[in-house]
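<derive_structure_tokens>
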Amino acid sequence: MNKRDFLKLAGLGGLAAAGTGAARAAEMEKEAARMAEMARRVRKPVYNMCGHAAGKLDTVGIAFVGVGARGIGAVRRMAKISNVRIAAVADIQEKKTGLAEKALAKTSHRPVVYAGTEDGWKEAVAREDVDLVYICTPWALHAPMAVAAMEAGKHVAVEIPAALTLEECWELVETSERTRRHCVMLENCCYGFFELLTLNMARQKYFGEVVHVEGAYIHDVFESLFNKSRRHDLWRLRENERNGNLYPTHGLGPVSQILDINRGDQYDHLVSMSSDDFMIGKRVAALAEGDAEFRQFRGKAFRGNMNTTMIRTKKGRTVMLQHDVTSPRPYSRIHLVSGTEGCAQQFPLPGRIAKGHEWLGEEEVKLLEKQYEPEIVKRMGALAKKVGGHGGMDFLMDWRLIDCLRNGLPMDMDVYDAAAWSAVLPLSGWSVANRSGAVDFPDFTGGAWRTNAPVDISMARGGNTGVVGG
């Protein structure tokens, strides 16, 4: 970090702090310097995990850490994949591990259960019969647990976001490189059927040169923020005390693979803007009147209803991301790909494709879907839809993860993706706090993005991994 960079960021901090007093200004300038240091860090990778293929595992032993809503679904799906042994399940709540045991009762899996204590997961991770740790805990635990698992010699699959701070992003990268253990973020939307179709079309230059992409997570989960029975310790509400894009990867993951991020192109910088919070604070104030558990949140500032973040890449392409989990509006991930010769978009309407001013007709789109049907969908699509999990994309993600581990294949999503996609959360928060000032992206690959080979999960034929009874 040179002096000019520091003054640039520190100056933005000073603008944002105008009228808030010298102490607040000093605090924000200190944060500006810290963010600049993390973003401009220059390092040579200890080992390049992009394209890394670990040794083959005939049977993959799995420890599930966190078996709530997302975790229990993963347990059920994994039980349907052959050459998998569910060795352990861990959760602080015994009722959650009980549900996992019940879900596995009619299978061959008899995991050892670790429940009722905050540290039980450590014993599960340390087991010699565990090869993969599958983490589905509250966000703040993702990075610390992933680091501990890699240090214990295990591969990691971690729910989104993989990290909450730039320091955690760097720690994930450095630990993965040093231990040579995979750290895969469980971004299931990369395995959505339309997302895979557009990835295959982009690879074959149907859209020409891709110029602009868009993604989003617009999902009315407002009531769930206050549901004490589903959210242990109200952690989801607590996370919304942050501002910025708190959940960027559903929209960002698929389009990042289309842009070859970390494998030919790289994020350069972003700017971010949030509306005010028009809903969460009011609901908290009302609940606090009759519920002592909500009084700890009274007077807190919460994220705005809508956040919009713009990213520019090294090659001059642009990305637009949006995030809104409170406003009453239809669900949308806004998967949009725009190129010099055509475009495609899904959400909030069904998938559409265009070569000009008008969308192609239904029959034309069906022909294109057949022509560009991804290999992974040809092989596993029908079964994935039958097993389910967000229309089948959850099962495709889990099957592909096991297939790569069993056959010693490089991962579709590596630790650099986990870090870069998660970094939007702290970077967007800093930009919002500083009047939408531009902030640089860290290069987690240490320059290797220039020569890393692109990954194409749409064409993944895989090895010999099957399903139980199939």
